[in-house]
Write a structure and sequence with these properties.
Blueprint: H1 2-30, E1 36-38, E2 44-49, E3 55-60, E4 80-87, E5 90-96, E6 102-109, H2 111-130
Antiparallel strand pairs: 1-2, 2-3, 3-6, 4-5, 5-6
Helix pairs in contact: 1-2
Length: about 160
């Protein structure tokens, strides 16, 4: 059961990794100037080139001005600005104007989700490559099938019967 849950997690993680790569490529292909998808009026997700091939996932509130990466010079002292600059691949700004208009931007280095979704498939590949193929062991899950006939009781894989000597 634990092996099936692990396999499902590896499959989900691999699917997320592939979907992320495809979505980034499609966004850049179809919207080269401002690649983003809108999920309503106040939430947009996109990809931006922060600095020389340092791609970032961008979450922002205003499609016209976002993803916001600059600074605002406020001569009146009425604009409320919060956030921080680029630290460890994360950039955040939240700006609120006196009239109530608000916009925010969160940029996250694309390497964080790539690494997070690649961990489980990498471990699975390493475990698979290191596992010796032994007689009496299921080739799919590694379960001891010396006393089983037909199918593996753990994963259901067909077991090759050895010929009698």
């Amino acid at each position: 059961m634990l092996n099936r849950m692990y396999s499902a997690a590896v499959g989900t993680s691999t699917a997320l990794l592939v979907a992320m790569f495809l979505s980034v490529l499609l966004l850049i292909w179809f919207h080269p100037q401002n690649p983003h998808l809108s999920f309503g009026q106040g939430f947009h997700v996109g990809v931006c080139n922060f600095r020389d091939w340092d791609f970032r996932l961008a979450f922002f509130s205003d499609a016209q001005y976002g993803p916001y990466r600059g600074s605002i010079i406020d001569l009146t002292g009425t604009v409320a600005m919060h956030g921080f600059g680029d630290r460890y691949g994360v950039y955040y700004r939240h700006v609120q104007w006196p009239a109530g208009a608000t916009f925010w931007t969160l940029l996250v280095s694309i390497w964080y989700p790539i690494i997070a979704t690649a961990i489980l498939p990498s471990i699975w590949l390493l475990r698979r490559a290191r596992r010796p193929m032994q007689a009496g062991v299921c080739p799919r899950c590694g379960y001891d099938v010396r006393h089983s006939t037909g199918n593996c009781p753990e994963c259901g894989a067909t077991i090759a019967q050895k010929a009698p000597d």
